[in-house]
């Protein structure tokens, strides 16, 4: 793994660094590129702007690893408000949530109940809820959660990470329940005993997993596929393979983060592919921002430019 990536991912877990950097104006300015604002209104404004470009969104409130049930309850209430506002404003926005934000560190059943309430309400409003995937220690519990929720609800998506060796077998076990999968490369600092470290190995596994899912789409088994990547090479290969398998362009969806590869977002939408942009908002942005820097260390230059302009 690149040493810079490793340092940044370790930094993302440091409370001291979070305290230091979140107070600095130059960091806040750099973060604005990926974050439309710290509150829901800013995210809804950004959503309306993207819809004018023909691009729907997914909304996510930043926050993870809550340590008290009251915080998990507050997060769930917030997402109910998001669903209500989206419906009121007639926006095409889904939601995406981290299990540790809904209390998985505290109790699995409580987390299940909170997701269920949100998924039910989202279903009534014609919306979808995605379950993010976090560090590898959460994978078993998150998949269990998904299986239970998927049994009663069609509008729930599970994220799987291509950097983990285990993901191919996790996917094979999930296929019989026609899962709705968001495939990503994976954003956390995992040991070489659990995850591929070389980019080319992660990319190869991403394409292999995407291929399995595209084949399921071509057979019409009920599987759904969402691809969370900004990598033009992955996107090109997936479009090529879908064409080969005669999977229509609108049978799967590319998902990208707000502020990243904007031209590519528009080009894909113009070419008839489904594209959705994930908008994060909130004040707990430090670990999330460090993971974005780790994905593309060139963004550090952007941060430094803001430092010298400050
Ligand atoms: C919608 C969505 C949801 C996600 N959900 C999760 C999740 O639940 N769990 C999880 O572990 N991870 C999640 N991720 C993050 C994901 O795992 C990757 O860390 C992230 O997407 C970077 O990988 P990549 O495939 O975009 O490309 P990389 O392999 O990081 O980079 C390849 C190329 O993509 C482009 N690129 C990538 N990142 C950037 C950037 N920041 N700025 C500009 N260009 C860039 C560049 O051209 C780069 O050369 C999510 C990502 C997205 C888009």
Task: Record keyword descriptors for this entry.
single chain; binds flavin-adenine dinucleotide; alpha/beta; 13 helices; globular; eight-stranded parallel barrel; TIM Barrel; 310 residues; 14% strand
Describe this structure in words.
This protein has 310 residues and is α/β, with parallel strands linked by helices. The chain has one domain (36-284): Alpha-Beta Barrel (TIM Barrel), CATH 3.20.20. The protein is built from 13 helices and 8 strands. It has helices at 3-11, 15-22, 25-31, 40-52, 69-88, 108-124, 139-152, 167-174, 199-219, 232-244, 262-270, 286-295, 298-309, and strands at 57-61, 93-97, 129-131, 156-161, 180-184, 224-228, 252-257, 274-281. Strands 1-2-3-4-5-6-7-8 form an 8-stranded parallel barrel, surrounded by 6 helices. Helix 11 (262-270) links the parallel strand 7 and strand 8 (274-281). The mean pLDDT is 91. The structure holds flavin-adenine dinucleotide (FAD). Flavin-adenine dinucleotide (FAD) is lined by residues 132-133, 159, 161, 184-188, 228-232, 234, 255-257, 260-261, 278, 292, 295-296, 299.
Summarize the structure.
The protein has 310 residues and is an alpha/beta fold. The protein is 52% helix and 14% strand. Strands 1-2-3-4-5-6-7-8 form an eight-stranded parallel barrel, surrounded by six helices.
Side-by-side strand order of the widest sheet: 1-2-3-4-5-6-7-8
- Helical content stands at 40-55%
Mean pLDDT across the residues is 91
Sheet-strand content, in percent, reads: 5-15%
Uncertain runs: none
Bound molecules: flavin-adenine dinucleotide
Quickly give the structural class. alpha/beta
The total beta strand count reads 8
CATH architecture: Alpha-Beta Barrel
């Amino acid at each position: 793994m690149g040493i810079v990536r490793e340092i940044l991912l370790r930094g993302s877990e440091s409370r001291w660094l979070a305290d230091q950097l979140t107070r600095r104006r130059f960091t806040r300015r750099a973060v604005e590129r990926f974050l439309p604002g710290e509150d829901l209104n800013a995210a809804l404004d950004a959503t309306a702007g993207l819809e004018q470009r023909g691009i729907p969104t997914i909304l996510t409130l930043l926050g993870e690893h809550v340590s008290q049930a009251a915080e998990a309850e507050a997060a769930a209430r917030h997402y109910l408000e998001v669903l209500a506002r989206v419906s009121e404003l007639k926006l095409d926005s889904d939601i995406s949530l981290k299990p540790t934000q809904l209390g998985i560190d505290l109790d699995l059943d409580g987390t299940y109940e909170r997701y269920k309430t949100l998924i039910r309400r989202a279903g009534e409003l014609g919306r979808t809820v995605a379950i993010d995937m976090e560090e590898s220690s959460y994978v078993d519990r998150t998949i269990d959660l998904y299986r239970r929720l998927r049994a009663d609800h069609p509008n729930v998506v599970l994220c799987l990470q291509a950097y983990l060796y285990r993901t191919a077998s996790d996917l094979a076990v999930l296929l019989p329940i026609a899962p709705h999968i968001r495939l990503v490369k994976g954003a956390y600092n995992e040991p070489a005993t659990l995850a591929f470290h070389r980019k080319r190995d992660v990319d190869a596994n991403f394409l292999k997993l995407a291929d399995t899912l595209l084949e399921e789409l071509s057979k019409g088994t009920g599987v759904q596929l969402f691809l969370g990547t900004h990598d033009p090479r992955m996107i090109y290969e997936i479009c090529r393979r879908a064409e080969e398998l005669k999977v229509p362009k609108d049978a799967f969806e590319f998902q990208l983060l707000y502020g990243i590869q904007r031209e590519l977002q528009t080009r894909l939408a113009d070419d008839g592919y489904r594209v959705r942009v994930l908008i994060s908002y909130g004040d707990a942005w430090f670990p999330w921002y460090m993971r974005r820097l780790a994905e593309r260390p060139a963004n550090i230059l952007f941060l430094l430019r803001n430092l010298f302009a400050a």
